[in-house]
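Service request form, structural biology core

Requester: graduate student, group of Dr. S.
Request type: structure prediction, single chain
Budget code: on file
Notes: please return the result as structure tokens.

Sequence provided:
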Amino acid sequence: MKKVRLPKFLRNKYAIASIGFIVWICFFNDIDLFYIIQSRREVGALQAEVREMEVKNVEAKESLHDLTTNSRSLEKFARENYYMKRDNEDVYVFKERTD
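Core staff response, request fulfilled:
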């Protein structure tokens, strides 16, 4: 029977311990490599959502300021969103079909 010779670096106890440690950290630990990658993706998605919400917040503040200071924009908002009308007007609402 022929003996199998391992490479010299695999016969070193420190190399074996280092490889074992890396395998343990990457696959068997509670906070393994896959968990860390998934967590970083989630954090990136949440940060993008926070930036989007900040932009929407600024737009809402501008809209609120416009509605509280300008009576024409308040009337336009009421007509568009709540279908309010004057006494001598008729309001027709057209909705698109989703066939």
